[in-house]
Design goal:
The complex is a heterodimer of chains A (772) and B (481). Chain A contains 33 helices and 2 strands. Chain A is mainly alpha-helical. Among the domains of chain A are: 202 residues, no CATH class; 132 residues, Up-down Bundle (Four Helix Bundle (Hemerythrin (Met), subunit A)). In chain A, strand 1 and strand 2 form a beta hairpin. In chain A, helix 5 runs antiparallel to helix 6. Chain B is mainly alpha-helical and 481 residues long. Chain B is built from 20 helices and 4 strands. In chain B, the strands form 2 sheets. In chain B, strands 1-2 form a two-stranded antiparallel ribbon. Chain B has a two-stranded antiparallel sheet with strand order 3-4. In chain B, helix 5 packs antiparallel against helix 6, helix 10 crosses helix 13 and helix 12 packs antiparallel against helix 13. The chains are: A mainly alpha (772), B mainly alpha (481). At the A-B interface, helix 7, helix 8, helix 25, helix 26 and helix 30 of A face helix 7, helix 9, helix 10, helix 17 and helix 18 of B.
């Protein structure tokens, strides 16, 4: 199973070489793999139909419970078969469609990679494996949409699809990890077996919302539906494969898969039914609004995906059967119609439905495929699409609000009926239209896939038992999580679903008849409205604006701005804890010592004057005053040596600073305006005051005097010295002092050397050779 | 105090220190002609140091009055940063020699910076911590400004120095506050003290926050990140590559150890601080990166964002979180070296180009380079199954288990935004109109490095198990009571 999933990736690597070797018929060679995979998966049909399931597991990161595990049941098998079967024809089709294209090899590479990712997605049992393949499908879709990268629209669509689906994927990851956390397992088969644990957990809502965000973005549900029509910028084989038959169904797959675990609650039903219903109507209406064949099909795909979500939301056994039947039918007729649209484009040079007519005579095979597929899509007997639609109505009539649900379904289906006829019949009948080049039928690769899929729609309609036993039955059982009886048939007597079908056809015929007028009307209305596609652009612009604002605020390139923010943070760090935790310092009665007060006043005035002076030299002097008062404090409290050091350092700093600054261009008066002045003074004040209060509270705690006692006890007895500081320097820490002296000496030597080099440099200005 | 056993513990550091001095003497006497030889010597020294680190005593050993510790955590991180430094040095050599940065001091400064980092990683006392940080920082200030004759490089060095000195001051202030209240600077001593009395006084809290702020500067977390884009852009590219890797790893390891070992009992006091800087870093790193046009500045914001993600693991304050951090740092190392190797290959007409737009159409003109860079970008965006995905996965799992939901959600959100700007590079390379091609011939060193890092990033999931078990053992040390 692992090999089957990875095989497309391996072949993908070699695809460009195959193309170079075999030339344009590489499609035929490469199609062997999906065909072989189809046969491989077909072997599971019998056992799965009789109720068996299979798990294949390979260790990956055992410590975290991550395994490459795959699960084969009715649902995953149905998808795997669709992926490989349609994939086979898509590879053939792409070979013909992109014949002679310079990057055909790369195209095959991406398509095969996608195939592998999609297989992995539907078969994965481990949540992390599922996510890995989920994101891989987004990436390969990104690469395929952007395949025609010389067009700006393509590039935008590619990025948009990736941002939407990739973002949703991350939400899905979060949801899956929460699920794993709650359920205590990374394996879906284990997690979903006991759905009540998930449903009754307080995190249920969070899990649900996250998982649905993943599914809805991928399956283009309102309000994320906008990326799918834009993705039609991709070459038609991609649209047929990814954006109708497989990838966009991944969200539906996920919902179906999660149904036993997360489904069945009121909130699940409400969300799925309302979003699905809204998507169905939105997609169907937008389909009529468009005149480009591919866009019409894309919008009906959105509508169909909405219908599927809607059906899964209803959750009754019949609705689930309907969902699986419709999914099966849709993959066949929509895949076929997309390929038809591509063939028409290839044969005539346009996809504008208004300009196409009378192609039936020159493109007989394409016309046959289109007609069959369109009949299935419009839901007419004896096609499988009819059965699917009958079951849809059975499902909606079975739900909690039968009339409303059925009305929604009928409206959507009627609109799709009209589109089916516009796409499948209108281009082939009537007088030959005005097309950019003379219509001609394409090579066999261009129509064989469409014709096969369309024919299958008919075959499965006539022999519905086949579909029921092998595909729909096992899949529905897997989705529901409980056994059920599935019995598909074409004609079940004149009952309510048939009535609904008749209304659908009548309404659809009306829409078709008024198609052009409706389309023009909708175009006027819809285009005037704000839509999520515009919203996406606004969001992106907003994001960039925000980014620019953030950068302009912080990253001015000026050191002083950086210092400002650093000090601002510092002030916050100093002030906030004291405000929040309380400072707890006690104001003691101040000592009545005039000298102390005088020094304090000196320091205070010095500090206060600094922000008010405009001259840099004066500011330096005032700093010196501050240092001087500190030295006095040391002196007063019995540390004359410290006071002396402080005095020296202060004097030196003032002298050096003044000397250096005098030579720099920044010397002179302060250039800051009044507001900045106040701001800086405030920050400085906040830091100073907060630091002071902190220090006061610190000194109110008794100091740890162990060291002082140690030295005062030993300095005379052990080192024979009365000056403790001296003793510490030359005796207790003699090695340190030696080191310090050495460092100072080395630094002195270095300075001397530098001074000496300066002379050499001056000389070298005259004769450059001497410098080496 | 048994000096012999102490020396046995610090063998790798001692070797690096002596080797550095020998190299300095060698260079001083042989002059600039020996530069290339000294580069290779430097790489050799780092390799030998790595061997010595691995051959060191197992378990936890203390040295010099418990100032210095060697444990599984230290060993893991040291190996990581030695690899990073060695790769960066190899990357720097051809560039520097070509661009006329031929001072033989360059590799020696790197060696001394690495020595400082090894000290940081093994620090078991606030004093040795500061010693390590300063040795590292002072070397790095000089390295940032190594190209004295260009304005950009010297400006970068100056900014880095001024802000770095400021942050060192903050750090030192915090340490003295802590010492003033706790009466000890030793990590074990502090840990015992706080474990006995978890009611921290305001002085300790402020001191702790100051220390955190100083360390946040070193890992360039918001709001102390301002130097990063300017220094990344201004410094010569190989220096930036080095800055992006080794010092970040060392500082982050130090950050983790300081928060969890001495201040482990005060987790409630610092968790909010880490929570905030992690959140702010992720947000700023991803949002501000969108508008960058210079790829080195973009990488600066990218590293700010990555550090935010790593800090999520620290905010979790759990063993799982530290494991995540170590895995993250491992993959971060290879992704970054690989990306910078690609950036170094961006040359046109013999001159470096740094505009993202100049990558346009690279997939046509140089498909291999484009493929490699695309891979790194996908990995940084956290797209599975590449290494970057696992890095994020581990950290976020830890955050969820520690019930830090806001961080996890913001992390996911910023991942999306991050993905957006990483993918923009891919878009430019693959979809945009081809620009003038880059110069042919990447050079042997870059080709080898890109190949190696591509392989590591792509197949990280295969080698995940041993890295993970190493990281778990390393993380366990910090939580052993």
């Amino acid at each position: 199973m692992l090999a089957a999933t990875l095989a497309p990736f391996v072949l993908a690597v070699f695809a460009p070489f195959v193309r170079r070797r075999v030339g344009d018929s590489a499609g035929w060679a490469l199609a062997v793999l999906p065909a072989a995979l189809f046969i491989y998966f077909a072997q599971f049909l019998g056992p799965v139909a009789s109720g068996e399931t299979f798990i294949f597991s390979t260790e990956w990161v055992p410590a975290l419970g991550i395994a490459l595990s795959f699960y084969v049941d009715g649902l995953s098998l149905l998808f795997a078969l669709l992926i490989t079967f349609i994939g086979t024809f898509i590879v053939l089709y792409a070979g013909a469609y992109l014949k002679g294209h310079a990057d055909l090899g790369r195209f095959f590479m991406f398509v095969l990679m996608f195939m592998g990712s999609m297989l992995g997605l539907v078969l994965a049992d481990n949540v992390v494996t599922l996510f890995v393949f989920w994101e891989l499908t987004s990436i390969t879709s990104f690469l395929l949409i952007g395949f025609n990268h010389d067009k700006a629209r393509s590039r935008r669509a590619a990025l948009q699809a990736l941002v939407v689906t990739g973002g949703g994927g991350l939400a899905l990851l979060a949801g899956l990890l929460l699920m794993a956390q709650v359920g205590g397992s990374m394996e879906l088969s284990t997690l979903l077996a006991d759905g009540d644990v998930l449903r009754e957990h307080p995190w249920y809502l969070a899990i649900l919302v996250l998982v649905l965000a993943g599914a809805f973005t991928k399956s283009a549900q309102v309000p994320f539906h906008f990326w799918l029509p834009n993705a039609m910028e991709a070459p038609t084989p991609v649209s047929a494969y990814l954006h109708s038959a497989t990838m966009v169904k991944a969200g539906v797959y996920l919902l179906a898969r999660m149904n036993p675990g997360l489904g069945g609650t009121d909130i699940w039903q409400i969300i799925l039914m309302s979003f699905g219903g809204a998507t169905l109507l939105t997609g169907a209406i937008l389909a009529l609004r468009n005149t480009d064949l591919k866009l019409m099909l894309a919008q009906t795909t959105v509508a169909s995906l909405g219908l599927l979500v809607f059906l899964i939301g209803i959750g009754e056994p019949l609705a689930i059967q309907a969902a699986m039947a419709y999914l099966f039918a849709h993959s066949m007729f929509k895949g076929a119609l997309f390929m038809v649209a591509g063939s028409i484009d290839h044969g005539t040079g346009t996809r504008d439905v208004r300009r196409l007519s009378g192609l039936g005579r020159v493109m007989p095979f394409t016309a046959a495929a289109a007609g069959l597929a369109a009949l299935s899509m419009s839901g007419l007997p004896p096609f499988f699409g009819f059965i699917a639609k009958e079951w849809v109505y059975k499902g909606t009539l079975d739900g909690s609000l039968p009339l409303l649900l059925t009305a929604v379904a009928i409206t959507g289906n009627a609109l799709m009926f009209a589109v089916a006829f516009l796409v499948g019949f209108k281009p082939f009948f009537g007088k030959p239209g005005d097309t950019p080049h003379k219509p001609h039928e394409g090579s066999v690769g261009l129509w064989i896939g469409a014709l096969t899929l369309a024919a299958l729609s008919l075959i499965f309609g006539l022999f519905s038992g086949l579909a029921e036993t092998f595909f729909i039955g096992p899949a529905a059982v897997a989705v529901a999580g409980v056994p059920m009886v599935v019995d598909l048939y074409l004609w079940g007597g004149f009952k309510a679903p048939v009535v609904a079908s008749i209304i659908t056809v009548a309404l659809g015929a009306f829409f078709f008849w008024q198609g052009a007028r409706l389309s023009a009307f909708l175009a006027r209305v819809v285009d005037a409205l704000w839509g999520p596609d515009k919203g996406y652009d606004q969001f992106m612009d907003g994001l960039i604006g925000l980014a620019r604002a953030v950068t302009n605020l912080f990253q001015t390139g000026h050191l002083r701005r950086y210092m400002l923010f650093t000090f601002l943070t510092l002030a916050a760090v100093l002030v906030l804890p004291q405000v929040m935790l309380g400072n707890g310092f006690v104001v003691k009665a101040p000592p009545i010592d005039l000298l102390v007060w005088a020094i304090g006043l000196l320091a205070f005035v010095g500090a206060l004057a600094i922000p008010f002076t405009r001259s840099r030299l004066a500011a330096i002097m005032l700093m010196g005053v501050l240092g001087l008062s500190v030295a006095f404090v040391f002196l007063l409290f019995g540390a004359p040596d410290l006071a002396f050091t402080q005095l020296m350092v202060e004097t030196l700093s003032v002298v050096i600073l003044a000397l250096v600054l005098a030579r720099l261009p920044v010397f002179g008066t302060d250039w800051r305006g009044y507001p900045r002045f106040v701001r800086d003074a405030l920050i400085a004040g906040a830091i100073g005051i907060a630091m002071a209060t902190l220090l006061v509270s610190i000194t109110s705690v008794p100091l740890d005097l162990t060291l002082s006692e140690f030295f005062s006890a030993r300095s005379y007895t052990e080192a024979y010295g009365r000056n403790i500081v001296n003793v510490i320097l030359v005796d207790f820490r003699a090695l340190d002092t030696l080191g310090e002296i050495a460092v100072v000496a080395v630094a002195g030597v270095a300075v001397l050397c530098l001074l000496a080099f300066r002379h050499i440099d001056h000389d070298s200005e005259d004769k450059p050779e001497a410098s080496s | 105090m048994d000096i012999v056993s102490d020396i046995a513990v610090i063998r790798p550091e001692l070797f690096v220190a002596i080797a550095g001095m020998v190299m300095l003497m060698f260079g001083a006497f042989r002059g600039e002609s020996s530069t290339k030889f000294i580069y290779w010597l430097g790489v050799g020294v780092l390799v030998v140091a790595g061997v010595l680190v691995l051959a060191g005593p197992t378990g936890t050993s203390l040295a010099f009055n418990a100032q210095f510790v060697v444990d599984d955590f230290a060993v893991f991180v040291k190996v990581l940063l030695l690899i990073g430094a060695a790769l960066a040095l190899i990357l720097a050599m051809p560039f520097n020699l070509r661009e006329g940065i031929d001072q033989f001091e360059f590799p020696i400064l790197i060696i001394f910076a690495v020595l400082g980092m090894m000290m940081m990683v093994s620090a078991n006392d606030l004093m040795s911590l500061y010693l390590g940080i300063e040795l590292q920082s002072l070397s790095l200030y000089v390295v940032a400004a190594i190209r004295r004759d260009t304005l950009r490089s010297s400006e970068a060095g100056l900014k880095y120095f001024v802000l770095g000195a400021l942050s060192s001051g903050i750090l030192l202030y915090g340490m003295s506050l802590v010492y003033g209240f706790a009466g000890t600077t030793n990590f074990e001593g502090l840990a015992t003290l706080f474990a006995a009395d978890s009611e921290a006084s305001i002085g300790v809290v402020v001191g702790l926050v100051f220390i955190a702020a100083g360390l946040a500067f070193k890992v360039s977390a918001v709001p102390f990140h301002m130097w990063t884009p300017d220094v990344y852009e201004g410094a010569p590219t190989p220096v930036t590559a080095f800055f992006a890797v080794a010092p970040k790893i060392a500082a982050m390891a130090l950050f983790v150890r300081v928060m969890l070992e001495p201040f482990g009992a005060l987790v409630l006091e610092w968790q909010q601080v880490i929570w905030f800087i992690s959140l702010a870093s992720m947000l700023l790193g991803s949002f501000a990166a969108i508008v960058q046009t210079n790829i080195k500045r973009l990488m600066a914001y990218s590293s700010i964002g990555h550090m935010g993600f790593v800090l999520v693991g620290l905010a979790a304050g759990s063993e799982e979180g530290v494991t995540g951090i170590l895995v993250y740092l491992t993959i971060y190392l290879f992704m970054n070296i690989g990306t910078f190797a690609c950036i170094l290959a961006m040359r046109r007409g013999g001159r470096m180009v740094e505009d993202i737009d100049s990558l346009a159409g690279l997939s046509k003109t140089n498909p291999m380079l484009a493929g490699a860079l695309a891979l790194f970008m996908f990995s940084m965006a956290g797209i599975p199954p590449l290494g970057g995905f696992f890095a994020k996965l581990f950290v976020f799992r830890a955050a969820i288990n520690a019930e830090l939901y806001v961080l996890a959600v913001v992390g996911l959100l910023t991942s999306v935004v991050g993905a957006f700007y990483y993918l923009r590079i891919i878009k430019v390379m693959y979809f945009d109109e081809a620009a003038e091609p880059f110069d042919k011939g990447l050079g042997r060193e870059i080709t080898v490095l890109v190949t190696v890092t591509v392989i590591v990033t792509t197949f990280f999931f295969i080698g995940l198990a041993p890295v993970l078990s190493g990281a778990e053992a390393a993380a366990a040390v910090l939580f052993a009571v």
